[in-house]
Amino acid sequence: MSELILVERQGPLCIITLNRPDRHNAFNDEMSEVFQPILAGALEDDSAAILLRAIGKSFCSGRDTSVLGHRARDESDFHFVRRAQQTRLAMQDATKPIIAAIKGGCIGGGCELALAADIRIADTTLKMALPEINYGLLPDTGGTQMLTALIGPSRTKYLVMSGGRIDAATALAWGAVDFVVEPEQLDAEALRIATEIASKPPINLAMAKHIIDLMHGPTIRTGTRAELLAQTALFKTEDYAEARAAHREGRTPVYKGK
User: Fold this and answer.
1) CA atoms of 36 and 30, how far apart (whole Å)
2) 104-159, pLDDT tens digit by residue?
3) Which domain CATH number covers 87?
4) Is 112 a catalytic residue?
5) Which of 89, 142, 174, 225 lies at 20 to 30 Å from 231 by C-alpha?
């Protein structure tokens, strides 16, 4: 099970690698149970920075569609979403910078995972999207808030309301990513940037992140909790049930606004 998430240290840098390439690094319950404690440990250890990357063609395609709606812990929708939100909020509240190397599919929860990082390096294969509306839902781990802080409300509304994808060039132009390189350069460039940052004084890194995040941090936290309430309600709607049924049956959903 631990092979789903790989972790290593290179000096002051902690490297966490998603390793489920056959499913485009989509998270199922097993992978989530492994990832959460590894990330928590990395956030609290003596490393100065974290590099988050992935094996395979995609960074992360979000929650595995084969387990959508499944609750391994037999918990409520509210508690399921809230637990997922804690991971994103912990990344934002961490005293160390997080650098994400993203490529291919960066979708749904995978997109939100990348957005929760402090710096994003992408390669030219990137396809970024928040497609939850196509499943009768909305982003629920801070996507609406983090993306708005990066690219503004209008573009965020377009992505959230349409469920559409943007490529690497658009993501860079809009500010959703910070650097774009060729695929064969991604790992090396992300490692270079992460290593450079990790070499700086840890207390300075912590203070810099804290000061800069004061610009949007409180709003993101409040808005993320609003996502929790919205998503909990949407799980109970007829349109959500219709979206799931249509997905299973390979047909176009018919929504009623209920």
Assistant:
1) 11
2) 999 999 999 999 999 999 999 999 999 999 999 999 999 999 999 999 999 999 99
3) 3.90.226.10
4) yes
5) 174
From start to end of 80-215, where are the E strands? Answer: 98-102, 105-107, 119-123, 127-129, 165-167, 179-181
User: Total domain count for the chain?
Assistant: 1
Report the 10 Å Cβ neighbour count for 86.
Answer: 15
The model carries a pTM of 0.95
Q: Per residue in 223-249, is it b (16+ CB within 10 Å) or e — as a string?
A: bbeebbebbbebbebebbebbbebeee
What residues make up the domain containing 136? 2-183
Cα Dmax for the chain: 56
75 annotated active-site: no
The answer to the question of residue 28 being in a domain is yes
User: For 122, how many CA atoms within 13 A lie in the half-sphere containing its CB?
Assistant: 28
Q: Measure the CA–CA gap between 252 and 244, rounded to whole angstroms.
A: 11
- The H or E element that residue 54 is part of is strand 49-54
- Give the active site residue among 30, 112, 189, 238: 112
**Which one is catalytic: 44, 132, 182, 249?**
132
Phi and psi angles of residue 244, each rounded to the nearest 5 degrees, phi first: -65, -45
